[in-house]
Specification:
The structure is a single chain. This protein has 71 residues and is α+β, with helices and mostly antiparallel strands. It is built from 2 helices and 3 strands; from the N terminus they run βββαα. It starts with a strand and ends with a helix.
């Protein structure tokens, strides 16, 4: 299986609720996204949070990704 990893940091901007004119605008966020190519189809894993929180859980997230198995 092939994994494609994207790791980005910056300001989190998103609608407070779908269709809302009000937006979150929070600096200091990080997103790690993984696209997993398998014979059964693609899978996506995404984790988003404050940089400090993401750093705390980095080893656990990496272990999870290494444990992935698809039949």
């Amino acid at each position: 299986m092939t994994l494609t990893l994207v790791d980005v940091s910056g300001t989190f901007v998103a609608e407070v609720t779908p269709g809302s004119a009000e937006h979150f605008n929070k600096p200091g966020f990080r997103q790690v996204a993984v696209y997993v190519e398998t014979t059964g189809g693609p899978y996506f894993v995404k984790v988003l949070g404050p940089v400090k929180t993401m750093a705390k859980w980095d080893a656990s997230a990496t272990a999870f990704l290494k444990s992935l198995r698809f039949e």
